[in-house]
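Let's practice the habit of predicting before peeking. Look at the sequence and jot down your guess about where helices and strands might fall. Then scroll down.
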Amino acid sequence: MIFGEPLIEKEEIDEVVDTLKSGWIGTGAKVRKFEQDFAAYKGVPDALAVNSCTSALHLCLESLNLLPHHEVIVPTMTFSATAEAVLYTGAHLVLVDCDKNGNIDPKDVWKKISPYTKAIVVVHYTGRPVDMDSIMQIAEKYGLWVIEDCAHAIETEYKGRKAGTIGDFGCFSFYATKNVTTAEGGMVISSKFILDNMRITSLHGMSKDAWRRKGKEFQHYQITKLGFKYNMTDIQASLGIHQLARVERNWKRRQEIWNKYNEAFEKLEKVETPAPVENGRHAYHLYTILVPNRKIFIEKMLEMNIGVGIHYRALHLHPFYKRFGYKQWDFPNASRISAMTVSLPLSPKMTDKDVDDVIEAVGEASKLI
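Done guessing? Here is the structure:
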């Protein structure tokens, strides 16, 4: 069984073929439709589609005009893209620990605030909502920007508010394994003024992209600022339009699988299952368990043809980030999760038999640890 296999249906395939036949496969009308559909889903005026969540994060941070002495707080329990986007700007990266569930720990954020802090990036880890009340309280007190990394959290809600709409920016991923996929892709939501500027920055600083210049009369563009090559294509958007249309149906299927896992694994003494969400809605992007002797556990899972993942080995444990001087137990919660976490298959494409196969494999693997 492949870990993170996406569910691609006929509508997406037909839409991609239609795009290929149309003669317009770059950034055009289908990207715009995807942006409008996503904005409607999130209940915001507009959205900007880009080629990755990494690009989305970079555009947000770039818009803050950060200087080398400025600091941006990032949780160490995240994928490298969250921190890389900070480093692209030349600003100083400050890592903080997570709580026992893997989300950024507001108590550690309080400790790391300095006169040079400019922004906090939060990650709704696995799709679990961050304690945004605490984060926004810190941001308000110190006048900080808040960027929500919602790579796992398209459907996530916190106290009735949709993830990505609580801070100043929301960044989303449509990577191949995500709940909505365009193979590669991302989205940003923010104020209209900021998005209008980001739209120019995302495509070489051009005043108009090719689609907006298309018409009977020739129109040329102007380069108005230093920009990047971060645009999404109509081929990608052709997938996203229909993936997004089924987002709630697929969420319900993942919830069913999640509940079956919880029921089956609560009987296993050496397997720690995810805690329930009490302050909102989980996106059910990743189902992660904590196990001792992870190497032995994973070897048995693979022997039984069950693909698994590790989300994540915290940033401070990687060779590149060790140069910042962090030690393993500077972040005890993140270090513990890093050593024990295993992500199990969780996809709407899974059949009931697939789910049973995973449950059986976890049961057998747990006997060896």
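How did you do? The longest strand covers residues 117-123.
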